[in-house]
Amino acid sequence: FAGAKQGPGTHQRVSPPQAPARKPKLKALTDGPPKELKIRLIKVESGDRETFIASEVEERRIPLEEITIKNTASEIVRACKGARLKGKFKESYLLPALSVKPVLTTEQPIPREKLNPPTPSIYLESKRDALSPVLLQFCTDSKNPITVIRGLAGSLRLNLGLFSTKSLVEANGEHAVEVRTQVQQPADENWDPSGTGQTWPCESSRSHTTIAKYAQYQASSFQESLQQKPVGKIIKFGTNIDLSDHKRWKPQLQELQKLPAFMRVSSSGNMLSHVGHTILGMNTVQLYMKIPGCRTPGHQENNNFCSLNINIGPGDCEWFAVHDNYWEAISDFCEKHGVDYLTGSWWPVLDDLYRANIPVYRFIQRPGDLVWINAGTVHWVQAVGWCNNIAWNVGPVNSYQYQLALERFEWNEVKKVKSIVPMIHVSWNVASNVTVTDPDTYKMIKHCLLQSIKHIQILRDQLVATGKKISYQSRVKDEPAYYCNECDVEVFDLLFVTSENGSRKMYVVHCEDCARQRNPNLSSVVVLEQYRMEELMNVYDSFSLVSASTCFLNVNKQEQS
Question: Where is this region: Disordered (predicted)?
Fold first, then answer.
């Protein structure tokens, strides 16, 4: 399941990216965009002669606090230059006046029967149903935290046998599998180590094996079950199996192209397809091999992105899900029980949630069922039978998804947790490559770009004012986004680079704060600029709201040509 990557039983720490290992080309830049002097020609008549005199036009400088997304990039840059800020510019990338989250009343006690709401379940009768735009609207509706699409594999004639244990062993039996050792117990219980009470922490130890060896374990576990072994035994869960290699898993990945566009691992309307590099398990497929009792602990997906999970079978899985609206209440429970909400491993005690007035969706996922986990949904899963699952994330370009992703990006920075999705980098790429037709989504992305320009221009001016040289080094194809080596925050455009002397010279990226902690005057730090300000200004000014009807007409023209 896609989110397992961030949970502590399954947290994968991505090593910090480093600046390219080649020696930086140092090329000094002029300070900001090209300067121009606007001249107005005034006609002067004298007798029978006409002459012109040149008059300089002084452009009005808008105060920085009055700048909005209605202003041009040039006006933003001019306002930044006139601001004369002291210290670090720390404004949020979020648009404070706009929230598209649904209002869910939590003050009145919810009757017990409504604390277990029915899970929206869609039954598809044909391929046409699966490809209907109504399906996308329903799944991404902010009021629907989770949707089960029953029998999707049948209606699309997906050959899920390609993901069966037998097929996987035949295709790549020696492929690596991460193993989580857990205690088998009922899905609605989580006992403390002494076995005397229910608790939230849900620890597991990690090891590694291969697909072939886990397949043997899966089969022998089934044989043992016929002898009625008691609950409470130690079990092993094969998790986070990477299926990203297109050569090695070609038939499997090709089969998933039959899915509707909004569900595919890669599509133009998926923000994660505009990252520009691989994020394992998010914009690639991961596989999970299970026996009864295997658990994916509670979590929200990385940066609150949507995810999909298909049960290959032959057994079932049991799911629990809670709307994003209640994540902070669940985080508080984690804190009370001494487990970190973002990076720890936890399994909610259902009675705690019910007493706190938190509705929990609970349902069975059968073989061939696809579960759509909407943005921000808190969820946890347990295998009922012997089964395999495949999962990945998607980022529909809508306002609810974008708002939740950017909120978590900023919350991660507060909590000093790495945002697996580099949201500033993604926002610029989406603005460059995606046609946006929804006004709220447009406003949010445009505001993020506006804040990004402010951050960059103000920092740039401060560096130049102190005599710090900025060297331009453009990005290359498939170059990853950068994160600070110390604090894991995303570092966009202006990279503070130091060289580390080891067996071979390595270049390491830092954010400004961490670079100054190491070296207050930045004397041994090279500042690299990856985009010229004019490039970003052009993207900002070109990014505009397109009417849905215009977009529809263009699509039709392309289809007919």
Answer: 1-34
Same-domain status, 127 and 214: yes
Measure Cα distances from 18 to 272, 296, 314, 463, 485 in Å: 21, 32, 44, 22, 8
In percent, the amount of the chain with pLDDT more than 90 equals 75
Rounded CA gap, 122 and 324, in Å?
21
Q: How much is the pLDDT for 466? A: 93
- Residue 215 pLDDT more than 90? yes
Q: Interhelix angle for 165-172 vs 211-225, to 10°?
A: 150
Domain count of the chain?
2
Give the sign of the dihedral formed by CA 495, CA 497, CA 503, CA 504. Answer: positive
pLDDT at 560: 43
CA atoms within 13 A on the CB side of 200: 20
The CATH number of whichever domain residue 495 belongs to comes to 2.10.110.20
3-state secondary structure of 358: coil
125 pLDDT higher than 90: no
Strand 361-365 to 295-299 pairing: unpaired
Q: Which residues contact 548 (CB under 8 A, 6 or more apart)?
A: 437
pLDDT digits (tens, 9 = 90+) for 130-178: 889 999 999 999 999 999 999 888 999 999 999 999 999 999 999 999 9
User: Looking at the DSSP assignment, which residues form a beta bridge with residue 525?
Assistant: none
Among residues 100, 188, 124, 200, the alpha carbon closest in space to that of 372 is found at 124
User: Does residue 355 sit in the same domain as residue 446?
Assistant: no
Q: Is residue 106 part of a domain?
A: no
- The Cα 35–Cα 33 span in angstroms is 6
pLDDT for res 501: 73
Helix or strand run (H / E) with residue 513: helix 512-518
Domain of residue 469 covers 73-80+424-556
> Is residue 477 in some structural domain?
yes
Q: Do the Cβ atoms of 322 and 378 come closer than 8 Å?
A: yes
Lowest mean pLDDT among 31-45, 99-113, 372-386, 448-462: 31-45
How sure is the predictor about 407, in pLDDT bands with cuts at 50, 70 and 90?
very high
Strand partners, 234: 183
The rounded distance, in Å, linking the Cα atoms of 182 and 295 is 8
CB 368 within 8 A of CB 328: no
Q: Which two tokens stand for residue 318?
A: 């049991």
CB of 393 closer than 8 Å to CB of 306: yes
C-alpha 432/C-alpha 426 separation (Å) is: 10
Nearest Cα neighbor of 437 from 555, 548, 556, 553 is: 548
